[in-house]
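User: quick one, fold this
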Amino acid sequence: MSTFKNKTVFISGGTRGIGHAIGMKLAAEGANIVIAAKSTEVHPKLGGTIFTAADDMTKAGGQGLGIKCDIRNDEEVAAAVQQTVDTFGGIDILVNNASAINLSPIAQLDMKRYDLMQDINTRGTFLCSKMCIPHLLKAENPHILMLSPPLTSITERWFAGHTGYSIAKFGMSLVVLGLGGEYRGKIGVNALWPRTTIATAAVMNLLGGETVANTSRKPDIIADAAYYILKRDAKTTTGNFFMDDEVLHSEGITDLEPYAVKPGVPLTPDFFV
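Assistant:
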């Protein structure tokens, strides 16, 4: 019997990249995948909408549902969660994937963009978690997974030059720390972060284009790592800051070359690693 058959997964973002890959992995197991995001029209540099993503999930073997939702808006998140419960009967897993990035230093970062990162990354993660928790508590093996860095990386190196972004991403990890303790034994709350850069639209557009993408791994490595984390007992798997390669190694997967965009090419370490 499939572990995720008929389980309902609420993913913030998920129209493309890592969130989409996680959704596809779980959809292939028969899960209901909710894509809660803003994209209703294809962006020329990003691609994908809530509708195309939901269709992808259904074609993969699950049931996809796209819900237009700005996770900065309390009412929209509440409505998206309620629509999910009304459609599928509950929520088993929350993946806090939505994130905004701007690597400008303090002097060049305008406050509107600073606020955007805090509102989506830290506050959005907090809000989605808050709204889903009452339903997760009713689930058989409930998990919350944040795509955020390990707190062991809180050093000057990862703040100087991009303080605004670092505050926003580590804010997500602090939510893991707090919720992991608050709901220990009830909900598994964990973070997952890549060892290397991942070939996503953000990498292509912001971190060096095709050159960096070619020295990256595919989003599939995060999806596979998430799959193994979410299979684990939520009562005993919580408060962890997982790295993708370590999760796979613990499952006996040591050959990671198939995940490389360009096998044999030296990989670029990811941010916060």
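User: anything notable?
Assistant: Residues 111-136 form the longest helix (26 residues).
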